Protein 1
Amino acid sequence: MKCERWADIAKIALGLWMVAVIAGAFLWVPPDWAVVEGERTGLGEGVRIVFFHIPVAWVTVLAFVISSIWSIVYLVRRRRQDDHRAVNAAGLGIVFCLLATLSGSLFARITWGSFWNWDPRETTIFFLLLFYAAYFALRAAVSDEGRRATLGAAYNILGLVVSPFLVFVAPRLASLAGLHPDLIGSFGGGLPIGPRTMTVFLAALAGFTGVFIWAYMLANRVSRLEDALEEASWAA
Amino acid sequence: MGSLNVDQTTALWIVLTVTLVVWLGIWGYLWFLHGRIRRLEQEMRRRESLTDQESAHAARRR
């Protein structure tokens, strides 16, 4: 009971935190930052999208890495619940990956005039979506539960390398340098990023991570309920 | 594509409002889901304890 009360407080705190992040991104971050940075990237005021686009992309990688870790745990312990945790994380990863793709498309529309340009970063995120779509297709193709979990877990281990590589490494390779502005690079790269901008950016990273954790815990609780229901029906 | 003629400050406020509405929608939905899952878990626990009591009764009668 006490635990549930703390969970409720955490949920309300997260709600208010994200409201503060959104208000901060539009009202508290100094407009001159948006002007300087927006001019450099060609985004204008649209540069404020970084407070949402980058955290969502970060959560995508986090979700996929967590999913791969649970797949490894499944292969070691062979517990059904571990497979569910891997699947739930991958599912949420896809949702956040789609959000990153959509916000990136808006980014592209403002900067380059069209929603999709096959820029290296757009291409790599497309491959990432394909990789996890294939994971779910593979799982859907196998009817035996144990085999499905084992095959899925074996495939998903690749994600531990694939997702960080496609999001963080491949788009930064010199030979693939595209139109996408390297905003993360600019945070450490001598441009005048004021304390307010950095505060809102870090708060957004923490907030989106909190949203992911909450949604992930809910998905895992639903899986546990489904398992319990199945066990009860077997017992009956 | 037709463009809406609003000044930059108004545009900023519009985007801010839309983003807030989207976030509050997501938050509200998660809150609602959390409540439903919690109720289902409680119901499950109640049924489990009832089943345990029934089997204990049956064992005693035997």
Note: Chain A touches chain B through 23 residues (CB under 8 Å).
Protein 2
Amino acid sequence: MKTPSLPAGSAIQEENEILREENVSLHQEAAQREQDLAELSESEEHYRVLVEQVREYAIFGMDPDGVINSWNRGAQRIKGFTAEEAIGQHLHLLYLPEDREKHDPEKHLAYAAKHGEFHGEGWRCRRDGSRFWAEVTLTALRRRNGSLRGFCKVTKDVTERRRHEQELERHAKELQRSNDDLQQLAYAAAHDLQEPIRNISLQTQRLARLFEGQGGPETANLFQITVEGADRLRGLVSDLLAYIRAVENLDEESPVSDPLDVLQEVQMHLRSALEESGGMVTAGHLPESIPVYRAHLVLLLQNLISNSIKYRSPQRPLQIRVWAEQLPHEWLFNVEDNGIGIAREYHDRIFKVFKRLHGRSIPGSGIGLAIACRVSSHYGGRIWVESDGQSGSRFRFTLARPTAEETE
Amino acid sequence: MSYSIATGALQVLVVDDNPTDTYLILEALRLACASCEVEVLRDGASAWRYLRREGPYQAVPLPSLVVLDLNLPGRDGGELLDMMRGTPELHDIPVAVLSSFPTDVIRRRAARANCYMTKPSDLDSFLALGKEILACL
């Protein structure tokens, strides 16, 4: 405060004027502060009420030693303690006795103090001693100077969620086991069926040979039909066995194959069929290596290419082109031919087991595309066909591509 | 039950419980080697007693070749093969595994066999097996 030292009249007036102006400005400032304080307190009240009213989350504060100093309604609802009961107690109160013995509360507080926050899930106990699975976030609160002011803890009861997760996991395991059982059953059934069928066929062939020249043409015909029937049955069972075994785990350590090399092997396997049909296979861009068992890629390409050979057009020389496109998460393989094509209404059906579109003039049981479908879905891929039903078919299948992280 | 055909130097032991198959194996061997002496046993346990020359088999000669099925009652073909490979006097006897499993499965279940064949379903192919079996010697 200035002490005026008997100034002249005009000077006093001037001084007065300045003082009055300063006074007004101080008043204004004070009023503003008051308003700010009121707003701040309103806002604080607002948040306090908000926190207090939250029922889904237990939200409470602690001092630097872990002694509870605030407690919302959610805390009361989830933990069972009233604010009067909880405030003044240590965080220990909310842990299971065995976790208290392991000093979990202290460890969690120390972790939050050191790293700013502790986040975790675990069993906690209620007032009545019952347990619940808690998802907790423990945050350290610090003053401007950095000293620890206390902690704030937000807890959610996620017992239900955990129960659902465990149930899902159990169901998934059960499904896997049941699938494995079915796979084994199908394999055993198909294999055990083969032997008696093979025996019937062999015995009938022996009988036919014994009776050769006796009983006339009707007998010979009956024998032939019986042998053919047994052979067809054996063929079907053997195809079924191939379908079942298509995705079995292989002995090789890690699944890896070179598609171009596989394509060459497939051409070797199909050499006589390709020569007979005059078919040409050309390879476009193919990745150098993919994480698929070689035998599985052989199955995929061989079944698609032999399908192209079977359904070639009599009007033009067969051309088959194989290439792959790299998509963000997968490879898209293409096997394109200039054969008779497939009408749109059959595009989905052709991948079903034993589904055939043509009569006996074209050999095969209808297992090849089903096998290709099974192998691609084993690798998390899809298979489909694009065709106008006249000028050829383009079979496309995807194989998941490992991300850079997975490759490391 | 056991029976043998012909008499001669080469002793073959066939272990298989399928009557159609054993008949055809005998036929095939007879076609390939008229002088072969073949003994047929229906299960792994009797085959083991035969090879160890126990009980009724004390006087039998050791076979020069064993033709083995995998699916046998009781002790299966794979086990019998392992037991033979673990026994010094039986260790070197050639074993041809003849089974209705595909060859990759046979190879897995009987890795220490000298050769493996899948039983054919065509009569002529079956009767032609004799030469292949003898090639395992």
Note: The longest helix of chain A spans residues 159-210.
